[in-house]
């Protein structure tokens, strides 16, 4: 399955939800996930299935002052 992740094409062996994708990418913390230009609420991460051809953007929040 092919998806676009932060502007780069990547292959996944099978369909995953957002929690599984973040785990595979070893990403955690405060972040926002957008799929096909729609922000997905954190409460839906475990139920939202990534599909072939999806455009996924992951943005990590960085604190500063």
Task: Write up this protein.
Helices cover 11% and strands 40% of the residues. The chain has 65 residues and is mainly beta. Strands 2-1-7-4-5 form a five-stranded mixed sheet, with no helix packed on it. It has a two-stranded antiparallel ribbon with strand order 3-6. A hairpin with a 2-residue loop joins strand 1 (2-5) and strand 2 (8-11). It is globular and about 40 Å long. The N and C termini lie far apart (40 Å).
Q: Helicity, in percent?
A: 10-25%
Report the average pLDDT across residues. Answer: 94
Task: Please provide the count of β strands.
Answer: 7
CATH topology: Ubiquitin-like (UB roll)
Distance between the termini: 40 Å
Radius of gyration based on Cα positions: 12 Å
Outline the low-pLDDT stretches.
none
- Largest beta sheet: strand ordering: 2-1-7-4-5
Which class in CATH terms?
Answer: Alpha Beta
Structural class, by secondary structure, is mainly beta
Quote the beta fraction: 35-45%
Can you tell me the CATH architecture?
Roll
User: What is the fourth-level CATH superfamily?
Assistant: Beta-grasp domain
Order of helices and strands: EEEHEEEE
- Largest beta-sheet characterization: 5 strands, mixed
Number of helical segments with 4 or more residues: 1
How many structural units, i.e. domains?
A: 1
Shape designation? globular
Task: Please write out the topology.
Layout: E1 2-5, E2 8-11, E3 16-17, H1 18-24, E4 31-35, E5 38-40, E6 49-50, E7 55-60
Parallel strand pairs: 1-7
Antiparallel strand pairs: 1-2, 3-6, 4-5, 4-7
